[in-house]
Amino acid sequence: MGFHGERQDTSSAGWLRLLALVDEAAADGREEFNPLVELSPQERREVITLPASIARLTSVRHLRLYGSNLVRIPPEIGAMSSLVEFTPYTSHRLHWFPYEITRCSKLMRSTVSTRSLFGNFKLRPSFPRLRSTGGLAPGGRLTALDPKKWGAVAVSSCSVCDVAIEGPELHQRWISLVVATDVLPLLVNACSAACVAALPPAAADHVPGPHRGGWDVAQPPAEWA
Q1: For the CA atoms of the chain, what is the radius of gyration?
Q2: Which tens digit of pLDDT belongs to each residue from 29-38?
Q3: Which of 54, 62, 186, 221 could form a disulfide with 85 if both were Cys (CB 3.0 to 4.6 A apart)?
Q4: What is the pTM of this model?
């Protein structure tokens, strides 16, 4: 298992319809957002991530993404301050989540297909090895990344302290934490070693502390080992 390398086609009908649905939900202040049911099967296949504009959905209490084709969730989910329930169940291409989801302080319930996750306790699949800092892209830019290598096409701010990352260095780490009712593998994009050191303890029975991944990272035995 590794990072998916697909890039979102921002000209596709599914993406354009999703943008409109986010705008509608932000405007009417709805408490449940279930956008995929509004898309045709073809449009659903065209959507592999969510737009950064989900940060405007501050009234949404339940985000439903059942059976999606998503391969990544944007860090802007952390701005959904009213989120109580998160349901990406049977979204089997979602293997990890952004650390920023921990900013959703009201999040209490989740329904995730955990067997699809990196480091899950039943199968213990390995985490993708994260790259060292520096040498990110021509000119050291963080706005033209290869998602297959970095898990994102761009990184704008620190997952931990939320300050803008303006330099060429990026401290990426994995950490498994209890989020709502599941243990999720979270990708941290930190601005410094100090922010990495400020991360909380990892969940019990998972890789202790933040790590860079790779097949050689020691994990506890799988449930069915």
Answers
A1: 17
A2: 999 999 999 9
A3: 62
A4: 0.95
